[in-house]
Amino acid sequence: MASQLATLRKDLSAPGLIRIAREQFSRIADARRQGSILFTLPDTLCAALAMFQFKWPSMLQFDEASHGDQTIIGNLRRLYQVGDVASDSQMRVILDPIKPSELRKAFRALHSCAQRGKVLEDFAIFDNRYLLSIDGTGLYSSTKVSCPQCCVKTHSNGESEYYHQSLVAVIVHPEQKTVLPLDFEPIVTSDGDKKNDCERNAAKRLLLAIHQHYANRPFIVLEDALAANGPHIQTLKGYGKDFIINIKPVGNAALFEAMHERFVLGDVTEDEERLDDGRGRGYRFATDLPLNASYPDTRVNMIEYWETDKNDKVTLNMSWITNLEINKENVFDIVRAARTRWKVENETFNTLKNQGYNYEHNFGHGKQNLSSTLAGLMLLCFLIDQLQQHACQLYKTVRKKVRVQKVMWERMRSALQLVDLPDWETLWRLLGKPGSEKAMLEFVDTS
Predict the structure, then answer these.
(1) pTM
(2) pLDDT by residue (tens digit) across 120-146?
(3) Are 72 and 66 in contact (CB under 8 A)?
(4) What is the pLDDT of residues 148-176, one digit of tens each?
(5) Residue 364 contacts by C-beta under 8 Å, 6 or more apart in sequence?
(6) Burial of 368: CB neighbours in 10 Å, binned 0-12, 13-18, 19+
């Protein structure tokens, strides 16, 4: 086995990352009476992780496949070190009481692994700081199925819509295709609450958790205009976090008025330049502006940025506030970093929702935390995939060969069903070799 795994990095590969996650799963308290346990909590969490890593469309389909095929159950035992796999109904009952915050142990451990393996060095920017893009997204909505944690929206026709959302923090970099989910916070209705939770309240909880668990990591927080308010910016400053926040005239009128007053007084720095392809770009910035009338002592720096086509028609116009020092030498770098915020939408949410992860599918509601905990496990699976995409050469080989992610997931599930896989390296080599479609059917395990 040692020789087989020699080409895989010890930790930054599927077996290493899954081992690290399982170690953290074993540290989550299990409130069940020990003598009656048939399926351990680490086994059940790992089985759910396997369901998401092989991208089964539903928990029922995973149940039917894993219990209807000895090859699959044998592979799950070898690849995830699980004992028995719970049925879909049993899995929901076991995972429902688990608080989503318990999964932070696994996220932290995987990020520590990435730091030890020097992965984070590839994401460093501005004197070894990291861009942390934070945004919210919907997970699920229905007019029929709900749970006690669902937020509720009442439409004009009186119909109620039940939904879950999540606030997600992701490390991004302008030059990296991969992203690294760091943490998440469910946006749900808590016990006894009659009002819906909201993104602002979730942001308070998320920032506190990030401050507690990554206090020494220098983040530059990237957020949309919803975050351009006094209490939130004071929270960021209180935790020692730098920030770049998008702003818009609607909602941040005071800032644009202050910027205009500075412009009239000639107290701004601005410049334009023509690019080699004939397009243009320009900026205007001012420092030490009051956020608004309610928070005049909360001071920020503001950038206005625009792009033009070859005929000088404006094609893009954006603005941000930041606490970073701005000058002519770094203003375009700050703009580039600010625009990287979209990676939480494009490379994260879009991938999770449209590339086979089934992020918006209802894998289970339960009566307590099930929906949010399963969403957290899916995000953890995505982190494992992204770390492999960034640091595991065998995984990169497969991704290069199988360019469409959904096709890759299909081939992974086929291999799990057709081949006795002794380890992850066998799976990656099987999928990455030329003519792997035929080889998958002809492969014979000789271990």
Answers:
(1) 0.93
(2) 999 999 989 999 999 999 888 888 888
(3) yes
(4) 888 888 888 989 998 889 999 999 999 99
(5) 59, 88, 91, 92, 95, 96, 370, 371, 374
(6) middle
